[in-house]
Amino acid sequence: MHVLQCTNGHFFDGDKYSVCPHCGAASAGGDSKKKERSDSFFHRNKPKTVSHSQSQSNMGDDVTVVLPQSDETAVAAIPSVPPVAASSLSAPAASAVAAQQNAVPVSVVPQAVAIPAASADSGKTMGFFSSNIGVAKEPVVGWLICVKGMHFGEAFELYAGRNSIGRDGSNKVVISGDNTVSASKHLWVTYEPKKREFFVQPGESSGLSYLNGDNIMIPQAIKMYDKLELGNGEYLLVPLCCDSFTWEDYTNNQ
Predict the structure, then answer these.
(1) What is the largest CA-CA distance in the chain?
(2) Is 43 helix (H, G, I), strand (E, B) or coil?
(3) All domains in the chain, ordered by first residue
(4) How far is 197 from 192, CA to CA, in rounded Å?
(5) Strand partners of residue 156
(6) Are the C-beta atoms of 50 and 95 separated by less than 8 Å?
(7) What separation in angstroms does the CA of 91 have from each of 13, 48, 52, 82, 102?
(8) CA–CA separation, 152 vs 93, rounded Å?
(9) What is the pLDDT of residues 133-145, one digit of tens each?
(10) Is residue 181 scored above 70 in pLDDT?
(11) Is the pTM of this model over 0.70?
(12) Is the pLDDT of residue 81 over 50?
């Protein structure tokens, strides 16, 4: 094949055509070897970029407009843009394509970002014993045992720190079904782990609570088998942690 180039810059086979089949212009002459070299395999795989001025003046019916692509952007994971036939474009659309050709290509290569997995206790406050002895679940420090009322015989777990008592699930101690107990924070029972002592104090309820028959108005100490009157129920404190036992004694066993 004898490759020629017309005066408008189009390449064509001189063995088949005497003039450019794209625009009808005559051959511009020149070194045919150089033209054949430009049509070699590697040069042919790199489409010629048509400038804005060329796209306006040289577009023929068979001209294909191809967006420029550098060696760097060729390896980027970017979907290729298929060639657009000029004959299928309106004048404004052809201008828009030409403007895109003059834009500097940007290589966008997605980067792998390592995102640390959230821990199971992310966003949660660690309890006193769970942080000290390295366990996921806070150990029980005692119980409130119902001795009168609809929950008779049931045990309610207490944990280190403040234990809110109420009817709904937002409380640590949930006394469900008893409408005489406030939904949230009717009463607080606190275990102080450094001194190994329990305390009781009123919550946000307008209802009253009693310790051994006395109205609870201020925080006060509560001991083994002391009786709390809460709503229509009565509960005994049965401590696990006390002078003779603490979970810290078992730290080395974990």
Answers:
(1) 117
(2) helix
(3) 3-76+83-95 (no CATH), 128-253 (2.60.200.20)
(4) 5
(5) 144
(6) no
(7) 30, 21, 13, 19, 17
(8) 82
(9) 666 788 999 999 9
(10) yes
(11) no
(12) no
